[in-house]
Amino acid sequence: MTGYRKRLDTVVIGAGVLGLAATDALARRGVDVVCFEGRRPGQAQSGGRSRTFRHRHDDPDAVRLAADALALWRRWEERAGAVLVGGEGAVYAGMTAADAEGLRLHGVPHEWADGARPSPHFGALAPVSGPLLVDPTAGAIRTRTAIEALCDWVGDRIIAQDVHGVTVPPDGEGVELHTEDAIYRARHVVVCAGAQTPALAAGAGIGIPLEQALHTRPHYRVRREFADTPRPCWVDRGGEFGETVYGSAIGGTDTFVVGLIGQGVDVPMDGGLPVGTEMEEHVRRLTAYVAKALPGLEPEPVGVRVCVMTKLPGGSDAFGVWTAPGVTAVTGHNLFKLAPLLGEVLADSAQGGELPPPVRRLTRAGTVAA
Ligand SMILES: Cc1cc2nc3c(=O)[nH]c(=O)nc-3n(C[C@H](O)[C@H](O)[C@H](O)COP(=O)(O)OP(=O)(O)OC[C@H]3O[C@@H](n4cnc5c(N)ncnc54)[C@H](O)[C@@H]3O)c2cc1C
């Protein structure tokens, strides 16, 4: 093939954390792989400075995947020579015995703590009426360090171009990708294009019911007198302070991010860009929450990030990996924590392997409206 028609073996579309992880996994296996990325790697949903790594999930299969992912994060840390998942732990309010049971089932260390006293696990937290579930091996992901390490590992395999479309050619041989300057014929394409994954996967006959919304997360400074107290990742489903929220330390800084979770808290983008971001209203609600629930933080935001997030109908931990001949596609939400594991799963699929049963089951569950 010459001129504007070219051949490639394996192509990854998108250099967010998942595309980078898949490209790295394939390259380590000796596969001839390139990754198309039209923008700066790691800047779309993988942008920002902190993500929560936590084990607790509603579905025990997801707990298993998180535990397996943490072991792979530790291998990435050895290769990177840097901490990627900090030792902050995670603390959850409003949990039940079933939440602890999922952790127990998969041998994830955890304990219950008395919420009514000042918490030795979370110094900035006000006393809460129920118990706190503590997940000590969870922590805040150092997202920038992780993206930098991945970019370093995949090196010049990134091609700085957008893919405009994916199609299955009439002769059924491989998959075609249309880019700015060529039509490529690839043996296998792995679509990791975040919000663009459904549009690209549709060309290969894969339908993905992904929703997009704008999400606001302000961050707050830790008061000086709490500077040396533990700052774990935080999930508050107790409702005692009027909101359901998550929070996370920004590793290596004295700031803490807080965001709303639950149905209807983000601004839907079904018809494209929404009219407003509702940034001010969300910052106001979160600041009121901080004033009540987190007295160890200054109740005045020092910054805010408003970003697009994608979700499947099954909820905020739902994700999926879909396959068609020559194509594997992945998307969902809260996937940073699973990146080292999904990189291997996607690489297996690109090499003709089956998806692991928990991934197949969670994909089906996540695409059914909750
Ligand atoms: C505010 C916020 C908080 C979050 N909190 C957590 C958390 O606490 N824990 C957690 O685990 N996860 C969390 N997540 C989710 C997590 O960050 C994402 O699931 C993850 O980063 C998705 O990575 P990705 O590689 O699939 O997608 P992205 O990072 O969106 O990457 C997709 C890439 O594809 C590229 N691309 C798109 N279209 C094309 C095209 N046509 N051609 C070439 N390239 C293309 C884009 O430019 C982009 O770089 C959060 C996300 C947000 C936004």
From TrEMBL:
Pfam families: DAO. Residues 9-348 form the FAD dependent oxidoreductase domain. Keywords: FAD, Flavoprotein, Oxidoreductase. SUPFAM superfamilies: FAD/NAD(P)-binding domain. The keyword Oxidoreductase applies. Its cofactor is FAD. It comes from the Bacteria. InterPro entries: FAD-dep_OxRdtase (IPR006076), FAD/NAD-bd_sf (IPR036188), MTOX (IPR045170). PANTHER family: FAD DEPENDENT OXIDOREDUCTASE DOMAIN-CONTAINING PROTEIN (PTHR10961:SF7), PEROXISOMAL SARCOSINE OXIDASE (PTHR10961). This is FAD-binding oxidoreductase. It comes from Nocardiopsis endophytica. The lineage of its organism: Bacteria, Bacillati, Actinomycetota, Actinomycetes, Streptosporangiales.
